[in-house]
Amino acid sequence: MVKLGFIKDADQSPPEHARVYIAPAPDGASPATEVRSWPNRDGEQLFEIAFIVPRGEKHLHAWVGFMAETLDRMGWDRWWIDTLSISQVLNRYIVDAVRQWGEAFWPLYQRDAVALIQVGLQREDFQNCAENWARQFPHVSVDDEYDFERITLELEAQAMEERAKRRFFGLHRLLHARNRTN
Fold it and tell me: pLDDT-derived band of residue 171, with 50, 70 and 90 as boundaries?
């Protein structure tokens, strides 16, 4: 079962999720991969894989199977897809490009995994894409546990609410103390 979640950008991705992105290959080159790794400032090892593929949507079916097979063979069960890179290689609007990629990719990728979709500013559109994939492919589901974009927004809202409460109670105490001295 593939569980889909969401991140707004790379900063929201947990370190155990590898970045997966698509890069354009020189004209006439066969699909290839490039794996990179480095430690972050907390000392955790980060990984990414670039699929270097021919540019243009007409080539999608020539490399999407290679991508699914490579991710499966590598055994990566936690990764996030750089949606902007798909758009740039397919040369299409980002949501249309990712929708097209997912319809070609998910039937081929069967590993038990958590895959995060980078949503940027198109959260609702990507949510709809993921829900459509879940309806189309029984091994794919959307899982709220991995919705890091929503979780982050909820935590930020809670923090703002707490700050507002503290400001109100601080002002209330100040006014109450002032009234006692009169």
Answer: low
What is the DSSP-derived secondary structure letter of residue 91? T
Judging by DSSP bridges, how do beta strands 113-118 and 140-147 pair with one another? unpaired
Asked whether 9 and 71 are in contact (CB, 8 A), the reply is: no
Residue whose pair of structure tokens reads 């069960």 in the numeric block: 77
Q: pTM score, two decimals? A: 0.83
Structure tokens at 58: 């007409």
- pLDDT tens readout for residues 89-104: 999 999 999 999 999 9
Q: What are the backbone angles phi and psi of residue 42, rounded to the nearest 5°? A: -95, 0
Burial string for 36-52 (b: 16+ CB within 10 Å, else e) reads: eeeeeeeeeebbbbbbb
Query: Nearest 5 degrees, angle CA 136-CA 141-CA 145?
Result: 160
pLDDT tens string 82-92 = 999 999 999 99
pLDDT given for residue 167 in this prediction: 63
- CA gap 15, 111 in Å, rounded: 20
Cα separation of 9 and 41, whole Å? 18
What is the pLDDT at residue 175?
A: 61
Half-sphere exposure of 138 (CA within 13 A, CB side): 0
| Of 166, 118, 112, 91, residue with least CA distance to 21 | 118
